[in-house]
Amino acid sequence: MSNAEIRVAVLGAGGRMGSEAVKAVQAAEDMELVAALRRGDSLDRITEAGATHVVDLTVPDSTEENVRFAVQHGLHAVVGTTGWDGERLQRLEQELAQQPEVGVLIAPNFALGSVLASAFAATAARYFESAEIVELHHPNKVDAPSGTAVRTAELMAASRREHGVAPSPDATEKQIEGARGAVVEDIHVHAVRLRGLVAHQEVLLGSAGEQLTIRHDSFDRASFMPGVLLGLRTVGSRPGLTHGLDGYLDLGF
Amino acid sequence: MSNAEIRVAVLGAGGRMGSEAVKAVQAAEDMELVAALRRGDSLDRITEAGATHVVDLTVPDSTEENVRFAVQHGLHAVVGTTGWDGERLQRLEQELAQQPEVGVLIAPNFALGSVLASAFAATAARYFESAEIVELHHPNKVDAPSGTAVRTAELMAASRREHGVAPSPDATEKQIEGARGAVVEDIHVHAVRLRGLVAHQEVLLGSAGEQLTIRHDSFDRASFMPGVLLGLRTVGSRPGLTHGLDGYLDLGF
Amino acid sequence: MSNAEIRVAVLGAGGRMGSEAVKAVQAAEDMELVAALRRGDSLDRITEAGATHVVDLTVPDSTEENVRFAVQHGLHAVVGTTGWDGERLQRLEQELAQQPEVGVLIAPNFALGSVLASAFAATAARYFESAEIVELHHPNKVDAPSGTAVRTAELMAASRREHGVAPSPDATEKQIEGARGAVVEDIHVHAVRLRGLVAHQEVLLGSAGEQLTIRHDSFDRASFMPGVLLGLRTVGSRPGLTHGLDGYLDLGF
Amino acid sequence: MSNAEIRVAVLGAGGRMGSEAVKAVQAAEDMELVAALRRGDSLDRITEAGATHVVDLTVPDSTEENVRFAVQHGLHAVVGTTGWDGERLQRLEQELAQQPEVGVLIAPNFALGSVLASAFAATAARYFESAEIVELHHPNKVDAPSGTAVRTAELMAASRREHGVAPSPDATEKQIEGARGAVVEDIHVHAVRLRGLVAHQEVLLGSAGEQLTIRHDSFDRASFMPGVLLGLRTVGSRPGLTHGLDGYLDLGF
């Protein structure tokens, strides 16, 4: 395995996502795990270990410095940490301009199924008269609807607006408060909280005589790992900054 | 067929439900349709035709007079018309006391599947930590949630309260208004409106590691007819007033 | 409405699909129904009425002659009739070569949701470890699985093969005959037959920790009309032969 | 907690189910865990610890001896181990005849949702024209369909037979082998195997115009613990042998 072309350093290896990534990289036949850094470890260990790729699954406070280090040393980076606002992204683009062969993927969501479901929902939304979303999560979640559901609704609404699709028909005159859900840019979004569940989303599209349903179930953090590995395998051939794993998926038909 | 024991007069035969009932009775091998009355027809036609049973699918204004006529003439009645408030029911009970062999069924819902789904939901609700309802209807519906969903929630809540089950856990701190649905006696109820749908209801029950879902789909008015026929076949052996088709279902295990 | 640019002749107007098409064209604001032909009517009525577009919803025996007539007279054609084998298609291509501005769409399926569901399934299949199909239909259907399910399985299998995806894992050693369904090119396909249903299909994709489900429900023939109208609106700008409505859908992301 | 009336000894505490039971009993406010025995531990530890109840989650080879020990010492027993054939049950009944106050529950399934789903399916099956089952499991399962699905089908078929319900209609003339699933006493059962899943079952019931679906999802072994606790809380008041957790559920309406 020492000749693997993808030599990976995992940053944030002590966290929940990071420790899964360590296992996933170790299990991948075409990769070698050369370093696993925890909070406080020196970044120099990355280069000393001869890494070619970095996976950053740390915290918003340190992710920018980690990625800059990788880019400056010519390493490709796959980033799952949040906190990349406009300013940070701009600085990163400037760094990348100096290293035209380096690729960076920043992805808010590594679950392939979730990324595909959002893309399909956005594509299909303009072809149906009605569109709503039901998301279902464990009852410890503090926000409703989920961030993923809000983003999916925004993508669907934008596509419908752009193609002149009228808002979903709705004759409701009398409702118990909240019955019709939250309204995110004309898309009604319903949030179910149920013990036993993890993270689930159902996009419902309807026209006269037919319904299309796109559902994604996330049962376990393990679902993020195929996306992380796909990122690692692809990032080296995609110089510059890519935002969202869908940029690496082959969604043309 | 002239020896059928169940000789049926359909009242309201010109309406949507009534015309379905006419067809259903004609197709039933153990029944004979002896009269089909429309608005304005004299009730005497019922007795002249030798009916033993009456199906009332008329309007709130005339249903009481129709049923009283049936009871006074010793005929069993299956009633799907709404508008039976406490006063009317009391007067009916008094009539029935004079005719101890006559049975009357007043049922707000003849869809067997829907009646079963409500009964199962009420039974199961106390065994799970979390309970919510999602109902889905065509977009021309004016009220949300549906009356059936509200009644189901009330039945579930009553059973949970009676057995000391705590409210469903919910850590929501931050929500877009309406995201968590309408709250009907501690049960969250979500109403989806989608072109292409008719009338659907999903009861979701969850505990650590498991989920039970009870879903009923009503695609067509035809779904009410098996319940009407079951009512006609049973009402003759159940003297007095029965409220709700579940009174005729064998739900003991 | 006499200035509508899309002046439509419906062929097969006496059939079930044709009569729906007549209503759909009449209801469309940007179209005018100029002729509705039934079996035996002369095709000359199409040109006499000044049609610019033809919808062919007839029978395999007459569809080729109908479409040839349209092409030769410079009219665009949307075709839902089956029976277009390789030879017929070849002859049609030759006709079209003589009329470089004419467009013809031959579509085996006009339900937008069904076409989208198949396309999404084919796209997603290569990203998951496991893939199966459950199709559900009314119990009068004579073949199992449905043609749509077989075609969807073939598309999914082809994509998985092309990208080197291993067959879905399956440790089954002991089964009651038929339990694991029909095997269509490595994809297991299960056919449910249930009174009350029309035509439904569920594509199930799974990897460690996640599931993606793409479900299409067809409740009514009305579901084909948006696809017919989309065909009519698009065919004039797509010269030559297009096979499958997906050729007109914007599926790039 | 030392005054808890339910003083529990868990047998098989080193196994997967047993270790979950240890945690569940410890977390229950009305119980006390007084002993946790592993393979090879002396049964005397149960009585020395002052247990009032025993949970047996061991192996077929030792379960009979364990339960006999409990009964002979006047302790109530909740048993999840398999292997209780007719002979063993008969010997157990004889033991119990000597100890008229002792209760024993032998349950093949402790997931409340699953037990309820089976009971509801059996109750509802006779009211619908069509009935089928789809079960879905992880791909490491060796048998298809699952034992639970076979038992559910048998219960449903028995109820339909008893009430003279005709077999589900099915016009299939031409099928790819296996498409219509396994046939268990006239009920078609389909087995899906998908990475990411655990254990799921969907009972589909249909009549003209309506569908009733009863679905149970088992995501995690944790789902068995509420049933084990319910068993422990109830077994003391139900002398003699009870087979199946449904005997303790309040399923009358």
UniProtKB/TrEMBL annotation, chains A, B, C, D:
Positions with a binding annotation for (S)-2,3,4,5-tetrahydrodipicolinate:
H138, G147, T148
What this protein catalyses is: (S)-2,3,4,5-tetrahydrodipicolinate + NADP(+) + H2O = (2S,4S)-4-hydroxy-2,3,4,5-tetrahydrodipicolinate + NADPH + H(+); (S)-2,3,4,5-tetrahydrodipicolinate + NAD(+) + H2O = (2S,4S)-4-hydroxy-2,3,4,5-tetrahydrodipicolinate + NADH + H(+)
A single MF term (Gene Ontology): 4-hydroxy-tetrahydrodipicolinate reductase
Which EC number applies?
A: 1.17.1.8
Q: SUPFAM superfamilies in the record, alphabetically?
A: Glyceraldehyde-3-phosphate dehydrogenase-like, C-terminal domain, NAD(P)-binding Rossmann-fold domains
Entries under InterPro entries matching the protein: DapB_C, DapB_N, DapB_N_CS, DHDPR_bac, NAD(P)-bd_dom_sf
User: Where in this chain does the record put each Dihydrodipicolinate reductase C-terminal domain?
Assistant: 114-241
Q: Give the range the annotation lists for the signal sequence.
A: none
Query: What class does this enzyme belong to in the EC scheme?
Result: oxidoreductase
Q: What does this protein do?
A: Catalyzes the conversion of 4-hydroxy-tetrahydrodipicolinate (HTPA) to tetrahydrodipicolinate.
Name of protein: 4-hydroxy-tetrahydrodipicolinate reductase
Which organism is this protein's natural source? Nesterenkonia flava
